[in-house]
């Protein structure tokens, strides 16, 4: 059946920076300094940001906002943005909200991520924001919550995370 459909070939090319640069620099800066440096282009963005065409919109202590404009390359087989894109956006925003509160020399990793997808995203949706906000910042564990909304505030997903905090060597 696919041979009966006129298929247009699509190509996407992108590049990313050496990821070891950010890891080394990040270990010497507070989370806020590092995230602000990434947002300004001073430090390389994670390769996954280039893969998804995702950017940091804003950073403040305890709150980070990422954005994506849904594209065909985000789609699952039924013509909507794949749930993994939602999860990646939310994991990034929530974990970075936690990262924004950490002093130099401390890192984190996601222990748990709970995501609720409320409605589909498509190329017709337009730009969406993943907004992550810290809930609790402890010495060894931190939690955050967040949501994906469009530019009018319409909810597409919401999530919570738990991250482990530890000394980071870079």
Structure description:
The chain is of the alpha+beta class. The chain is 24% helix and 34% strand. It contains four helices and six strands; from the N terminus they run αααββαββββ. It has helices at 19-26, 31-40, 47-52, 83-99; strands spanning 55-60, 63-68, 106-117, 128-137, 141-150, 155-167. A six-stranded antiparallel sheet has the order 1-2-4-5-6-3. The radius of gyration is 17 Å and the shape is globular. GO terms for molecular function: 1,4-dihydroxy-2-naphthoyl-CoA thioesterase activity. Residues 79-155 form the Thioesterase domain.
Give the C-level CATH assignment.
Answer: Alpha Beta
**For the residues shown, what is the average pLDDT?**
94
Radius of gyration equals 17 Å
Count of distinct strands: 6
Q: Helix/strand/pairing class, anyone?
A: alpha+beta
Mind telling me which CATH architecture this is?
Answer: Roll
The main sheet comes to: 6 strands, antiparallel
Q: What gross morphology would you assign? A: globular
Q: Which stretches are low in confidence, meaning pLDDT under 50 for 5 or more residues running? A: none
Helix count, DSSP H or I runs of 4 or more residues = 4
Helix content: 10-25%
Give the CA-CA distance, first to last residue: 51 Å
Order of strands across the widest beta sheet? 1-2-4-5-6-3
**CATH level 4 superfamily:** Hotdog Thioesterase
Taken as a percent bin, the fraction of beta residues is 25-35%
Query: How many domains, as an integer?
Result: 1
Order of helices and strands: HHHEEHEEEE
GO molecular function: 1,4-dihydroxy-2-naphthoyl-CoA thioesterase activity
Pfam families: 4HBT
Domain Thioesterase: 79-155
Keywords: Hydrolase
